Amino acid sequence: MKNKKFNIALISAATSLMLAAPAVVSANEAGDILVRAGLAYVKPDTGSATAYLDVGNGPEDLGNKLTVGDDTQLYGAIAYFIDSNWAIEAIVATPFTHDVALDGGNVAEVTHLPPIVSVLYYFDTSSAFQPYLGLGINYTFFWDEKFTAAGYSDLSLDSSVGYAVQAGADYYFDDALFINASIRYADIQTDVTFNAGSTPGSSTIDVDPMVYTISLGYKF
Question: How far is CA 54 from the centre of its chain?
Answer without folding.
Answer: 33
